[in-house]
Amino acid sequence: MSQYEKLLRAVMSGTKDKNISFSDLQTLLERLGFQCRIRGDHFIYTRDGVEEIINIQPSGTQAKPYQVKQIRSIILQYRLGGDLI
User: Fold this and answer.
1) What is the CATH number of domain 3-80?
2) Least confident of 1-10, 15-24, 60-69, 76-85
3) Domain-by-domain residue ranges, the chain?
4) CB neighbours (10 Å) of residue 28?
C-alpha cells in the first residue's frame, strides 16, 4: 500500500482527524487534482468540476480536524478517491 493510499484511508476513516499532518493533507489534495494558491496563512484549493473551495490553515504542524472532515465530505460527494473509497 502506497503512502497516498494510507493517507487517503486515514482521512476517509474519520478516526484520525486530529493526527493528520498539514503537509500530508496538502499532498493529498494535490494528488486529487486540486490547485493551490496562498493568501497569508490560508491555503486555498480549487479543482475543475468541484464547486466548493477548500480553505485550510495549519494548526502548528497538524491539520485542523474540522477541515479534515470537510475534505472527507468533498471526496465522498464528488467520488474523488477512485477505487480506494
Assistant:
1) 3.30.920.30
2) 76-85
3) 3-80
4) 23
